[in-house]
Design brief:
Layout: H1 35-40, E1 49-56, E2 59-67, H2 73-89
Antiparallel strand pairs: 1-2
Length: 90
């Protein structure tokens, strides 16, 4: 990549984090993103979201949703090995 690389919008140093809402998981493992969050994030029907996890002491402690079509090349480089590992272990 030529030039200065752009920091992804979801980088820990790029913005602020806050709790937007609480959601419940039903008995089928499904949850609903509230309308206000979908509108604010411009999430439309058919959009793909990447689910990211953060592990600490062998337990998943945080989950993140990223719009799949907006992953930067840098994020793809980071995620690539994880995706390959996931596919290999499937």
């Amino acid at each position: 990549m030529a030039g200065k690389s752009k920091e992804p919008c979801c980088s820990p140093t790029a913005g602020r984090y806050r709790m937007e809402s609480l959601v419940s998981v039903d008995d089928r493992g499904q949850m609903v993103l509230p309308k206000e969050i979908r509108e604010k994030a411009q999430i439309r029907p058919g959009d793909k979201l990447a689910v990211m996890s953060w592990e600490k002491d062998g337990k998943v402690c945080c989950l993140f949703l990223l719009k799949a079509d907006e992953l930067s090349e840098v994020a793809k480089d980071i995620l690539g090995p994880m995706v390959r590992e996931f596919k290999e272990n499937k």
